[in-house]
């Protein structure tokens, strides 16, 4: 948190690098609104002009603990804020505390400004339903393979299928649970989509 001027209100800020090449994406919560600087562009969105916030859990191969906030403006503009920052070609550093504090402060300032933004968490309902349908088909196929392996006496194959299924549930289960679509209010930001 930074303070500018002797009696100025504190300015909450957050920055991350979306890629190795290019400058950091910088955001500040000022008295006037959300100030952003992304790839040579900048703007100021008043808190009551922010039309939507979607929070989600978005792991990637190099960072299994990554979160994302998509912020929409009444004019149709959209910006994304990620909880990780590129450090080197092989390292993405988590910025959990800064990301969480920034988003909690943004919600508080929007509530104070009387915002009527749509607040959602997780994936879209159609995307989530399609993912659940795919997982159900995959579960049926895996169960069929397991039954077939047991029927022909391939116990090593059956053990492999059980192990693979357990690993899959461990890896995908958290993603499915955290990204369940839901709405929330300014004073009850869901912790499952924040680090």
How would you describe the shape? elongated
Quantity of strands, as a count = 12
Oligomer designation = single chain
Unreliable spans are 1-6
Compute the CA-based radius of gyration: 21 Å
From the helix content, strand content and strand pairing, which structural class follows? alpha+beta
- Helix coverage percent of residues? 25-40%
Order of helices and strands: EEEEEEEEEEHEHHE
Major sheet: 5 strands, antiparallel
N-to-C terminal Cα separation, in Å?
Answer: 18 Å
- What's the overall average pLDDT, rounded? 88
Number of helical runs? 3
Percentage of residues in strands: 25-35%
Strand order of the largest sheet: 1-2-3-4-5
Could you characterize what this model shows?
The protein is 35% helix and 30% strand. The chain has 3 helices and 12 strands, in the order E-E-E-E-E-E-E-E-E-E-H-E-H-H-E. The strands form 3 sheets. A 5-stranded antiparallel beta sheet has the order 1-2-3-4-5, covered by helices on one side. Helix 2 packs antiparallel against helix 3 (155-178). The longest helix is centred in the last third of the chain and has 27 residues, at 125-151. The radius of gyration is 21 Å and the shape is elongated.
What's the structural blueprint in terms of helices and strands?
Layout: E1 2-3, E2 10-16, E3 25-29, E4 34-38, E5 41-45, E6 50-57, E7 67-73, E8 78-82, E9 84-88, E10 91-94, H1 96-112, E11 118-121, H2 125-151, H3 155-178, E12 182-183
Parallel strand pairs: 6-11
Antiparallel strand pairs: 1-2, 2-3, 3-4, 4-5, 6-7, 7-8, 9-10, 11-12
Helix pairs in contact: 2-3
């Amino acid at each position: 948190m930074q303070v500018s001027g002797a009696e100025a209100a504190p300015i909450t800020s957050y920055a991350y690098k979306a890629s190795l090449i290019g400058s950091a994406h910088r955001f500040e919560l000022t008295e006037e609104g959300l100030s952003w600087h992304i790839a040579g562009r900048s703007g100021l969105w008043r808190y009551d002009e922010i039309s939507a916030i979607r929070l989600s859990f978005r792991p990637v191969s190099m960072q299994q603990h990554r979160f994302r906030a998509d912020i929409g403006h009444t004019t149709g503009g959209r910006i994304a804020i990620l909880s990780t920052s590129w450090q080197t070609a092989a390292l993405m550093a988590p910025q959990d505390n800064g990301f969480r504090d920034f988003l909690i402060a943004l919600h508080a300032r929007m509530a104070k400004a009387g915002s009527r933004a749509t607040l959602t968490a997780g994936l879209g309902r159609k995307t989530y339903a399609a993912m659940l349908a795919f997982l159900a088909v995959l579960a049926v196929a895996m169960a069929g393979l397991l039954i077939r392996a047991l029927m022909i006496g391939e116990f090593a194959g059956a053990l492999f299928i059980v192990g693979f299924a357990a690993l899959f549930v461990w890896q995908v289960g958290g993603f499915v649970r955290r990204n369940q679509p839901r709405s929330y209010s300014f004073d009850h930001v869901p912790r499952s989509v924040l680090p």
